[in-house]
Amino acid sequence: MDTIASLFSFITTPVSWVIVQFHKVYGELFGPDTGWAWGLSIVSLVVLIRICLIPLFVKQIKATRAMQTLQPEMKKIQERYKNDRQRQSEEMMKLYKETGTNPLSSCLPILAQSPFFFALYHVLNSIASNDTIGVINTRLLDSAQKAHIFGAPLAAKFTDSASKVEALGATLTDVRVITAIMIVLMSASQFFTQRQLMTKNVDTTVKTPFMQQQKMLMYIFPIMFAVFGINFPVGVLVYWLTTNVWTMGQQMYVIHNNPTPGSKAQAAYLERLYKRVTHHGKTRGRGERAIVKAIVAKGRDRNEFERKFINGLNKAGLAAQADGTVVKSEATATAPAQAADGEATTAGAAAVKRQQPKRQTKAQRQGGAKAAGEPETKTSLSKSDQPQDTPSAGGKKGGQKPGAGTRSKAQSGQRKGPQRPKSPSKK
Q1: Buried b vs exposed e over 229-250: b needs ≥16 C-beta within 10 Å?
Q2: Which of 106, 68, 310, 297 minimizes the C-alpha distance to 204?
Q3: CA 164 to CA 170: how far, in whole Å?
Q4: Has residue 184 got a pLDDT over 60?
Q5: Does pLDDT of 317 surpass 50?
Q6: 54-80 and 108-128 are packed helices; what angle lies between their axes, rounded to 10 degrees?
């Protein structure tokens, strides 16, 4: 561990300088040799580092969500080229390039603060070894060695021997109890942070190996902190516990105000947003407009919670616009007029319905026709008694075509056209 920490020795001077500056401020309030002055200096160092890392944290959130979105495509590539690892890697890199996604972006905050962590470890280890480092001179070294946090020296470890702990002015029991409590709190905060991410801020509609990996990390990280924590000085445990609590609070804020689409957190957020929008009749703030704008832009690709939100606005007489604003829909504007004319319209319709005459029967209609003097329609299906015209010798009569008089016979099975007269039968 000392070898790894020595690699980051170039940053120990800035880290020690920041701690000393905070120590001057807190030393005026609590005393220069107290654990509060040195402990709060470490906490302030964490806060300062995490504030500087907020842009990287935003990139981490975007990268994590992009990776969740790409999981179905990645799974297809793995199944398609499961026997060709090289081609599988090439297709993965091509997918990352096309979508502008970097898998390492989700690890940026941890990688960025690693130098500060190892530098702080190196500073506290030098204090325990009674060595000056960075801007910490002999006077500050004596002050730091006298500082105790709840009875445990700042530079003491869980694995230190009794003689070493006594040299720092404490007992082995106090050191191990305090370090054990801090290790448990550190592991618990890490577990709760990861569990909060898995149970509330993960798209439940997509089942991918990425979710299984995150679920494994939820149990692996706390165990790692517990194992390595027994070798950390109390000051480093303060640093790591503070950064875990900061991460947990920062993540709670993000989940509450900008949840992952399709997650349970998004369902709760859209329900709260629906109540606010329907109460005020508009979206308030840039964040709400950005959320509504993203939902409107999805169109038919909206998930279940987003469709429910849009339908709820429509039922409330509101319409979400493409710029993220919410206005009253046109249907609501005409509703009062329709409501005012509702009774008259209903009464008029009823009157018209009552004025319609009843449907007459066939006998009534025929009786009405006779009474009006209309000629009675002949409905008999019997053939006419008038004799049919016979074809003349010239083949025409009255402008009729030859064979026109024989159509009725042709329909009964005889051949069409003029027929030859039958010869008289011989008796």
Answers
A1: beebbbbbbbbbbbbbbbbbeb
A2: 68
A3: 9
A4: yes
A5: yes
A6: 120
Give the Cβ contact number of residue 327 at 10 Å: 12
Say which residue, 392 or 30, is predicted with more confidence. Answer: 30
Residue 397 three-state SS = strand
The neighbour count for residue 114, using CB atoms within 10 Å, is 13
Q: Please report, for residues 21, 252, 292, the alpha-carbon distance to residue 31 in angstroms, rounded to integers and kept in the order given.
A: 14, 35, 52
User: How many other β-carbons are positioned within 10 Å of the β-carbon of residue 80?
Assistant: 12
Which tokens hold the place of 171? 């007992």
Q: How far apart are CA 197 and CA 256, in angstroms?
A: 11
Beta carbons within 8 Å of 121's beta carbon, 6+ residues apart: 1, 5, 232, 233, 236
**In the chain, what is the straight-line distance between the N-terminal and C-terminal CA atoms, in Å?**
142
The most confident of 35-44, 68-77, 255-264, 375-384, by mean pLDDT: 35-44
